[in-house]
Amino acid sequence: MINLTTSSIKGIKDSKIAKNENNDCFVRALAAATDMDYDTTHKEVKDQFGRVNKKGTENHMIIGQMLNAEENGLVIGDKRFSVKVLPKARTHNTYKLYGELIKRKKTVKSFIKDNPKGSYVVTVSKHALAVVDGKLIDNKGEEFRPTRKVDGVYKITKPKSESVQLNLFQ
Known about the structure:
The protein is α+β, with helices and mostly antiparallel strands.
């Protein structure tokens, strides 16, 4: 498993907003998963997810807005992304214990192993991180905690570059 810190997010090193922020893990995770710059993502999370500066994004707002985005798309800056809220079958492992099937939340490491391709925002207890093509992208100091249990996963699909079709006979 490859770990990267969120310092690799576009524009974060030069962002005055990022330098003055706390509890912005969801902003960083969404910026990493969408490959958008920090300041644009910060504005959209504030507007769409009701995030208050330095306060973090509340889990119920993330869930509600991501369910809405699954139906209507997620707009960040000038790009529209598709969102898929992963079902429990993709975020839980099933074990047999004394003949009974038990479902348990996957660890971040287990989720990455099962999902080596794609861009995901992953929520764990009071925290969010990104997984992009098998790479864990997290805040410095948090990236070495792969045994955290996954609470929710949102697959982000980047927009296809729009192609222009020529009409020769109009």
